[in-house]
Design goal:
The protein has helices at about 15-25, 35-45, 65-70, 90-100, 110-175, 180-200, 210-215, 230-235, 240-250, 250-260, 265-280, 300-315, 325-335, 345-375, and strands at about 5-10, 30, 50-55, 80-85, 105. The protein is of the alpha/beta class. It is rod-shaped and about 110 Å long.
Length: about 375
């Protein structure tokens, strides 16, 4: 028995017999005498039907109604070709047949050879289309799996980058006698400023992904302090000129440290870390160090980190000074007492000021709570 079937739908038994005879050697022949019976046959044999030969004029339910029913049922005539067999040779009959989803129209009286060729051609076309759709679906599933795999790999790499950055930056924190909240504030300030800049200055080229990278990389800004002697790094008083030159070297020495871990970092993270580490003490008027970059010669990543670093230094206690009130810190930066910043960055600072001050209050409260807990535990 053939694996596939052809359904012949015609209220004339002789016509069904003639059409069935044409295809009996290729297909199993199924017959229906009207539209309702045809719908039942289609539902019962949907997966095995190669084609449907459908008369238009039939009692109870005509061929057009069968086409409409097939369209309502998951657009079946998109996957099973329906060829209309009709004595109506009018253009209107053909137009209506095609509009309702027929694949072809064959006129009575029909020639067996022509019917055979046209049905065979139509079945081949539909088989090719259906097979192509299956292949596309299969390929789509494979591509989706590959995409999800790559996304997981990307996420793992991102997490690895973040762990490397946070681990190294935390070592410097401990050595500099900074609290664990220093990095939280720096990254928080950078993100707040960056989001403000993205929303107000699209020409700066910021986007959510780049902001994520810059925010994480900003934690590496002071990695070079690992090479600064304790006598300079932890000095409570004012640095001498010679000591200040040693302190300034943390930008270039930090760049050397970043180079050492180049092979364990994603290139994008590496590039941004290197840039921030070397250039977060540059100033917009060229008065910074180590390269004296001026204006937009310095990257937006380094500019954002520079302001965040200065602000954190002002509002928090350091070995060489007590914290300034947030109002005073804001005025000092706006007035250029801590070096010159880009007008755009300063505008973002002014807009983002409430969020930055809120972060200062939150982290200081958390620090005090930790100190209280530690004292109680002792």
């Amino acid at each position: 028995m053939a694996d596939r079937s052809i359904l012949v739908v015609d209220d004339n038994e002789i016509n069904r017999g003639i059409l069935g005879e044409i295809f009996k050697d290729k297909y199993e022949i199924l017959e229906a005498g009207d539209g309702k019976e045809a719908i039942s046959m289609i539902e019962a044999h949907e997966d095995e039907l190669a084609a449907i030969l459908l008369d238009i004029v039939m009692p109870e339910m005509d061929g057009y109604a069968v086409l409409e029913a097939m369209q309502r049922k998951d657009n079946l005539n998109d996957s099973i070709p329906v060829l209309m067999i009709t004595a109506d040779t009018s253009t209107e009959a053909e137009r209506t047949s095609y509009q309702k989803g027929a694949a072809d129209v064959i006129h009575k009286p029909f020639d067996p050879v022509i019917v055979d060729k046209r049905v065979s051609r139509t079945v081949e076309l539909f088989d090719s289309k259906n097979n192509l759709e299956i292949q596309v679906d299969d390929q789509t599933r494979v591509l989706k799996k590959q995409f999800l795999y790559l996304k997981k790999q990307e996420e793992r790499l991102k997490n690895s980058n973040e762990r490397v950055i946070d681990t190294i930056a935390t070592i410097v924190e401990f050595r500099s006698m900074e609290s664990s909240y220093h990095l939280k504030r720096i990254k928080g300030f950078v993100r707040i400023l960056a989001l403000t800049a993205m929303n107000n200055y699209p020409e700066l080229g910021l986007n959510p992904h780049l902001i994520d990278v810059i925010t994480q990389a900003s934690a590496m800004h002071d990695i070079g302090k690992i090479s600064v002697p304790d006598s300079v790094l932890l000095k409570p008083g004012r640095l001498t000129n010679e000591e200040f030159e040693v302190m300034k070297s943390h930008t270039t020495r930090g760049s050397e440290v970043i180079e050492m871990i180049k092979d364990v970092q994603d290139k994008e993270y590496y590039d941004v870390c290197l840039d921030i580490c070397r250039h977060h003490h540059e100033r917009y008027d060229g008065g910074g160090y180590p390269d004296g970059l001026k204006g937009e010669e310095n990257s937006i990543a380094a500019q954002l980190t520079a302001l965040a670093d200065v602000y954190d230094a002002l509002v928090c206690d350091r070995v060489y000074k007590s914290a300034y009130p947030v109002d005073k810190a804001y005025e000092m930066i706006k007035n250029g007492e801590c070096g010159v910043f880009s007008p755009k960055i300063l505008a973002c600072f002014e807009f983002a000021r409430p969020d930055m001050e809120k972060l200062v209050a939150q982290t200081k409260a958390a620090e005090e709570a930790e100190k209280g807990y530690s004292a109680g535990a002792k």
